[in-house]
Amino acid sequence: MANIVTITLNPALDKSISVPELVPEKKLRALSAKVEPGGGGINISRALKKLGVASEAIILSGGYTGKTLEALLSKEQVAFTAIETEGDTRENFVVFDEDKKLQYRFGMPGERVSDQELGLLMQAIGNCAHVDYVVLSGSLPPGTSTTVFHEIAIIAQQLNAKLIVDTSGDGLKAAVKEGLYLIKPNLRELASLVGKEWIDMADVIVTARQVIVAGACKAMAVSMGADGAMLITATEHYKAAAPQAPVLSTVGAGDSMVAGMLAALTKGWGWEQVLQYGVAAGSAATLHKGTELCSLSDTDRIFAEIKKN
Ligand SMILES: Nc1ncnc2c1ncn2[C@@H]1O[C@H](COP(=O)(O)OP(=O)(O)OP(=O)(O)O)[C@@H](O)[C@H]1O
Ligand SMILES: [Mg+2]
Asked: Ligand 1: does its nearest atom lie under 6 Å from the Cβ of 305?
């Protein structure tokens, strides 16, 4: 069994409700309410658990929201190490309008994290023994320098682990300085990585190869929402289409996709199947409302469909 560590620097307590119709002034009665642990790495660990793969989530966590988040992770039997922060863990809020089938996402600002707290997080990562994969995903707490991503990449290398990164903007630019195993940008994030406003699907392979040849990563999965994804290495490239199914919520699609790819990697599968299983898991996450991640049965069913095409 591969040893996987996920890292979440900016976790969140995700609250989601659905209302019959979102209208101003009126008192709205929630039809359902859910509280879940969230943030890139945490979601990947939770999705991995659903896919039957164990991992350990290293997180920053503070205040009563942090305690709730930790209790929820324990309930889901996701192993974690929490570095306590003085500031409270932030909250996110999702409202689903049942009438219009539309989703509204609100993010509360997070609190700053001190250098000492970040230092303890780095120590916790460095102390991990026999790690095969380190997964760095999500945003940075407000005020934290993107160089932290580069520092984590260096630690992952010292651990001899394969580093997988799913983040955006300057954070991604800082992480790739070290030469990563796999990155999963969407089209917008890939464009930003190469200093462009936008990239057409037709230019994805050429652009990805430029990034790979420059030494930024060994492989790149470029996700394209409803259009599925492509996976590019120095010598191979594959495309997988997402299935046509009614989409209820795309929240967590990217995280589920990374978890799917990782689950496939731990089975020793080749890049084409790694991509297909990732797309299957990403699309599986869209079949449910709110923040729900991929289920194993949906992922396996969609994977079988993708392989047939
Ligand atoms: N509308 C959709 N229909 C079908 N599948 C989808 C849709 N949106 C996303 N997916 C699936 O999830 C994968 C990742 O989605 P996407 O490209 O939107 O990632 P992202 O932009 O990183 O998303 P996130 O907001 O979760 O970070 C896609 O490759 C696809 O398999
Ligand atoms: Mg994403």
From this structure: no
- C-alpha distances in Å from residue 300, one per residue of 28, 61, 295: 38, 33, 9
Residue range of the domain that includes 46: 4-308
Q: Residue 1: pLDDT above 80?
A: no
Overall number of domains in the chain = 1
Whether 230 shows a pLDDT value over 80: the answer reads yes
The number of beta carbons lying within 10 Å of the beta carbon of residue 144 is 21
Residue 99 clears pLDDT 90, i.e. is over it: yes
Q: Which stretches does DSSP call E strand in the chain?
A: 4-8, 12-19, 32-38, 56-61, 79-84, 90-97, 102-107, 133-137, 162-166, 180-183, 217-223, 229-233, 237-240
Is the pTM for the entire model greater than 0.85?
A: yes
**Closest protein CA for atom 23 of ligand 1:** 254
Ligand 1 neighbour 186 (Cβ under 6 A): yes
Query: Domain with 292 in it: what CATH number?
Result: 3.40.1190.20
| Residue 263 backbone dihedrals phi, psi, to 5 degrees | -60, -40
Structure tokens at 135: 């997964």
Q: Which of 286, 298, 301, 305 to mutate to test the pocket of ligand 1 (most atoms within 8 A of CB)?
A: 286
Task: Provide the pairing of β-strand 56-61 with 32-38.
Answer: unpaired
What pLDDT was estimated at residue 178? Answer: 87
pLDDT (tens digit, 9 = 90+) per residue, 104-114?
999 888 899 99
Ligand 1 neighbour 248 (Cβ under 6 A): no
Ligand with an atom nearest the CA of residue 255: 1
Match 């001190």 to its residue by tokens. 114
Give the tens place of pLDDT for each residue, 129-157: 899 999 999 999 999 999 999 999 999 99
